[in-house]
């Protein structure tokens, strides 16, 4: 038996009248002999090894063949957003000649920037509830609104460019929930053909999880 750990501690837990934990190693690799040496006089000991696994596919075909594609959707604690009648929408995004409405309280929950603007009287938007967007496309803003209401937007985010534009949107308006979900989703879409773009955007827009995933992908090549 081999135990791999990525420099996480390997603990021994003793079962009996008392429960204790003793760190026995912190290493990248532990051999059979080393494990036996640690446990040879401890018949009741239980080894706990915590292993982090990261998987990436080289093509869309690989992903569809070996697993169900990940959805870009709200966390399980948010399904009420889609089910419940939340009343009249009282905020509007305006992008060029197009607009899309959203509930004010949802916007405040998702973005600290918008929350500050809506709660501070000297901002015109706090009175009008209207936000003019000039540096993002309407589809990007619409994808964000759909995400707020618990819709799956993975089909729209089928290109690296669209994912990175939403990442930029989430970074600019400080949207930690969108950012975390999008980083996790984007990490499953890393390919040889897009890893450079992902890494560049992850670095620029403070997406640490995605950056780490890109670096791990490159290390495996």
Automatic annotation (TrEMBL):
Species name: Panagrolaimus superbus
Protein name, entry field: BTB domain-containing protein
SUPFAM superfamilies named among the record's database cross-references: POZ domain
CDD domains (UniProt xref): BTB_POZ_ZBTB_KLHL-like (cd18186)
Sequence ranges assigned to domain BTB in this UniProt record: 89-154
